[in-house]
Amino acid sequence: MAVADPADEVVAFASELIALDTTNSADTAAAGRERVAAEYVAEKLAEVGYAPTYVESGAPGKGNVVVRLEGADPGRGALLVHGHLDVVPADATEWSVHPFSGEVRDGYVWGRGAVDMKGMVAMTVATARRFKRDGVVPPRDLIFAFVADEEAGGFAGARWLVDNRPELFDGATEAIGEVGGFSVTLADDVRAYLVQTAEKGAMWLRLKATGTAGHGSMMYEDSAIATLGAAVARLQAHRFPVVLTDPVRDFLAGVAEITGMAFDLDDPEAAVARLGNLARMIGATLRDTANVTMFEAGYKSNVVPSVARATVDGRMLPGREAAFEVELAEVLGPDVELLWDTLPPVATTFDGALVDAMAAAIAAEDPGAAVLPYMVSASTDAKSFARLGIRHFGFAPLRLPPDLDFAALFHGVDERVPVDALRFGTRVLDRFLRTS
Length: 436
Ligand SMILES: [Zn+2]
Prior knowledge:
Bound molecules: zinc ion
Number of strands: 19
Strand order of the largest sheet: 1-2-6-3-7-18
Number of helices: 13
Distance between the termini: 30 Å
């Protein structure tokens, strides 16, 4: 009997998962769409002998699936491999192919979720199936978790599971998930795989200013809108200080070592500016940021409103939580009321047996390539799992063509992933999980 090769299965799984529209938006939040993908994954796992646990938080349709494969040494902490099933919205009129087609064309699997992150989910399902079919006993317990709602903060996914079903992750000490493990080409034929060891923290601020209300034809000394408008304009013009954190320093040192480029670490911005496609992604991890994302005030053209409100998306570097708050309050000034909602940064070191296993698995499939740590500016489910004391790495291995602007594909138009990269990633994941 012919047994499916996981490197063949992965392409079909990625394509079929993309074709299941699991858009997570304000419009679809009330009726979660993850269930179809959760059932799909659960069926693929059950087919080879797993007994998947299907969990919903109470939010209908936001399905999560967890299975565990027992390892040889129950005394060692388990390794969690997690991926989210939801995707951000896509406007089909902007795309070259329909975003929920999962079409395989020109060597790519196309569609929303191809890189964020149904490709990795497909790689994980294909590998988990192979292990079960072949009776592979990994060195330690493996927990495979496929979760809902990541794109809306994980309140019906990772965050909810950590708060309400922590026993599903019993004994887990380390985890891999997004966003890392992809290759970048730094110079001619010099390839490095970026393992994510840190995430900036996130702080959502609700701002409020008040002023005198009344008829639009009168004279006023103050204005809620003008006060808040001036404050957010100051914030948008503000530049937070450059801080060279360990992950970014290690990344730049690694790039210097493998390319021979000489960086002046006293001027990290100039160093990062020389990184081509990567400059934008790495540049966002040199300093805190704060962008105004929503502004609302007024309800009628001849009424001066008493209140104006705005929302700011703030992102701070590890170690900058307190300083960031102080600096924000200073820039916004005393006339603006602030409400904070914070997800602290997470960071780990780039060392130990798990990192060695990642590097060895990459080296076996792409000899001569380097493996470097980096920090991602965005937030992932890692922040939820970190609350269980789990050490996290972004490691979803993909070998990418040199000219592909990978960072632009996340939440982007014409999101796609190379077929070869999925097959490569499945082989790396297989090696890594057998030796982790
Ligand atoms: Zn994602």
